[in-house]
Amino acid sequence: MPLNCKETLELGIRACSSGNWREGLIHLRRLKHQEGVCNGMPGKFYSHLGLAMARCEGRMHEGLEWCTHAVVVEPTEPVNYLNLAKTYLLLDNRHGAIHTLREGLAVDSEDDGLLELQRELGVRRRLPIWFLARSSQLNLYLGRLKAKREARRRAAKLRLGDETTGIYRPAE
After folding, report:
1. How many domains does the chain have?
2. Contacts by 24-27 with C-beta closer than 8 Å and gap 24+?
3. Which of 39, 86, 90, 172 is the most buried (most CB within 10 A)?
């Protein structure tokens, strides 16, 4: 990808990420028209283009197609799932958004954007025993047990630090 294509892509994504969707759409559309010159675009390009089209121009279904294409092109990028979920929400398709969030969290369970949108939507966790009712005593007990175990793991991770950053804290 030529340097000016990379710069334009970064400008477009940065504008979209900061909430300036119209400006981002202008940059991304410029790249779309140069597609012969700018080959091998990453999935982020398509997902931001799709969400910007849906938000700014109301072209929801076309935006959904671009966001879906982004997930196919780059299935390991969490922002593609986030933009697809947001596009589903613009279409009032909560079920599609929740399904997409779950797929994205399967790729990266600690992505801040996906987790934040999941909290905003109030998505419930999956039932420990799916064929029993949510109010079942066994499901309630196992759910509480699982939540306690996850809380202990998070606390231990905070005490020990994050291996990826190299920051270690002594255990108290």
Report:
1. 2
2. 24/48, 24/52, 25/49, 25/52, 25/53, 25/56, 25/57
3. 86
Run of H or E including 120: helix 112-121
Instruction: Give the span between the Cα atoms of 117 and 28, in whole angstroms.
Output: 24
CB atoms within 10 A of CB 153: 10
- On whether the CB atoms of residues 43 and 60 are closer than 8 A, the answer is no
Residues 145 and 65 in one domain: no
pLDDT tens, 88-133? Answer: 999 999 999 999 999 999 999 999 999 999 999 987 788 999 999 9
C-alpha 41/C-alpha 2 separation (Å) is 11
pTM greater than 0.85 (yes/no): no
**Bridge partners of residue 167, in order along the sequence:** 162
Angle between helices 43-57 and 60-73 (to 10 degrees): 170
Residue range 147-171, pLDDT digits in tens = 899 889 888 877 765 554 444 444 5
Could you tell me if 141 and 71 lie in one domain? no
SS3 131: coil
What is 154-170 written as a DSSP string? Answer: HHHHHHH-BTTTTB---
